[in-house]
TrEMBL record:
Function: Catalyzes the condensation of pantoate with beta-alanine in an ATP-dependent reaction via a pantoyl-adenylate intermediate.
Quaternary structure and partners: Homodimer.
Reactions this protein catalyses: (R)-pantoate + beta-alanine + ATP = (R)-pantothenate + AMP + diphosphate + H(+)
Protein name: Pantothenate synthetase
Organism: Acetobacter syzygii
Similarity comment text for this entry: Belongs to the pantothenate synthetase family.
Other comment: The reaction proceeds by a bi uni uni bi ping pong mechanism.
Main location: cytoplasm
Gene assigned in the entry: panC
Residues at the active site: 37 (proton donor)
Superkingdom of source: Bacteria
Residues binding ATP: 30-37, 148-151, 177, 185-188
Length: 279
């Protein structure tokens, strides 16, 4: 596995692969890798002949400077984890100056999908996501890219702009990978204190209970309110808890096939997100 830090060096490698007829798959990440990221790498098995994992903590998707500074980083450990898979050809880890050179002034905005859920909670976040993912897809020359369903809104957004911009990239969605107690794997979990980590297991449990209530036909508003109270009783500050359609992210008034439950909630300064299908 090669570690490439510059855009020009990556372009040279991609050009060589293309002359060899290679198909390139990419897994864009912000590092602090875990088993969920490795599931994305594994999702490319039998699909591509070359794999690139990117690591770039993207400053323009953070609307909180402290959150950006505290985001966990560890390139050496990440490189070792990827090397041990025996599947990754290149780890691409550009620096900020190479990704956003002086004078950079372009943003990609996906109207409609960016103003709800995490978009409403974190203004400008998805403009930053769409911009950096577009750049990474172009830089890596990928024909296939894997993204996790844990960041479901992000996945919907990427599907949308790939279609809208006619990018020749197939997006593979990968189911959420969870800990034994149900907590969705996330790089942010590393920042939880031991007591907070114990508290955090209440998040997926509350969602599952809410889904069971929805499936019995109880009113949506009642189920959501009960779930909010449940989370607050476990020490969470709930940013949002919504039932929405899985394809459009529009609010759902009833629990029907295709609906999903979405949540963002914080323990102290640590913001956790999750989502689950209702049926």
């Amino acid at each position: 596995m090669r570690i490439i830090r510059s855009r020009t060096e990556l372009a040279t490698q991609v050009a060589q692969w293309r002359t060899e007829g290679a198909t390139i798959g990419t897994v864009p990440t912000m590092g602090a890798l875990h088993a969920g990221h490795l599931a994305l790498v594994n999702a490319l098995d039998g699909v591509v002949t070359r794999r690139i994992v990117t690591i770039f903590v993207n400053p323009i998707q953070f609307n909180n400077a402290a959150d950006f500074q505290l985001y966990p980083r560890g390139l050496e450990a990440d490189a070792t984890l990827l090397q041990n898979t025996g599947k990754v050809d290149v780890l691409y880890a550009p620096d900020e100056a190479d990704m956003y050179p002086p004078g950079f002034a372009t943003r990609i905005m996906v109207s409609g999908l960016d103003g709800v859920l995490c978009g409403a909670d974190r203004p400008g976040h998805f403009d930053g996501v769409a911009t950096v993912v577009t750049k990474l897809l172009l830089q890596t020359g990928a024909s296939v890219a894997a993204f996790g369903e844990k960041d479901y809104q992000q996945l919907c957004l990427i599907h949308r702009f790939v279609r809208d911009l006619d990018l020749p990239v197939r997006i593979i969605p990968v189911p959420t990978v969870r800990e034994a107690d149900g907590l969705a794997l996330s790089s942010r979990n590393r920042r939880l204190t031991p007591p907070q980590r114990e508290q955090a297991s209440a998040l997926p449990t509350a969602l599952k209970t809410c889904i069971t209530d929805l499936q019995t036909g109880k009113p949506v508003a009642t189920c959501l309110q009960t779930c909010r109270e449940n989370l607050k009783n476990h020490g969470f500050d709930v940013h949002y808890l919504d039932l929405r359609m899985g394809d459009t992210l529009k609010e759902a008034q009833t629990a029907t096939p295709g609906t999903r439950l979405f949540v963002a909630a914080s323990l102290g300064e640590i913001r956790l997100i999750d989502n689950m299908p209702v049926t």
